[in-house]
TrEMBL record:
It comes from the Bacteria. Residues 5-146 form the General stress protein FMN-binding split barrel domain. PANTHER family: PROTEIN BLI-3. It holds the Pfam family Pyrid_ox_like. InterPro entries: Split_barrel_FMN-bd (IPR012349), Stress-Dev_Protein (IPR052917), YdaG_split_barrel_FMN-bd (IPR038725). This is Pyridoxamine 5'-phosphate oxidase-related, FMN-binding protein.
Length: 159
């Protein structure tokens, strides 16, 4: 697959899966939390809505490196995106990204506690599997032979 096609696959998986575990460093510890991803494909940016009172601003101020782990277990498709993050107070962007899931956390896009978490991807890696049943059959066949199973496409993408 051509590099541009691989990059398009990354953006398609972000769109399709939508929710990821955002991992960051909290001192020596690593922390992950589920987040709903919004993205601007043309700008190569992934956005999240977050609360001003969360610890993300302090964590990212010390180390802006993050990892976004997306998983679609029904199709056995996985995506990991590494990038640089920052927390911003951008009221126009909050209104632009406002959607039904955000209503679970805030009453309106005008809530002064909403912040934008902006991630600029540096690289990504995805694993496209042929599906659960086929994967199990391939693993069982490989276990009975000396061959490694063909488990679908795996690609690394640099941004």
């Amino acid at each position: 697959m051509a590099e541009m096609d691989k990059e398009e696959r990354v953006w398609e998986l972000i769109r399709k899966i939508g929710i990821c575990m955002l991992g960051s460093r909290d001192g020596e510890a690593l922390r992950s939390r589920p987040m709903a991803a919004y993205f601007d494909r043309a700008a190569h940016i992934i956005y999240f809505l977050t609360d001003a009172d969360s610890h993300k601003k302090e964590e990212l101020g010390r180390d802006p490196h993050v990892v976004l782990a997306f998983a679609d277990t029904s199709s056995q498709t996985y995506l990991s995106v590494s990038g640089i993050a920052e927390v911003m107070d951008d009221r126009d962007k909050v209104r632009e990204l406002w959607s039904t899931p955000a209503k679970a956390w805030w009453k309106s896009p005008d809530d002064p506690n909403i912040r934008i978490l902006k991630v600029v991807p540096q690289d990504a890696q995805y694993w496209d599997s042929p599906g659960t049943i086929i994967s199990y059959v391939k693993m069982a066949a490989a276990a009975m032979s000396s061959a490694r199973p063909a488990m679908g496409e795996n690609a690394k993408v640099n941004f």
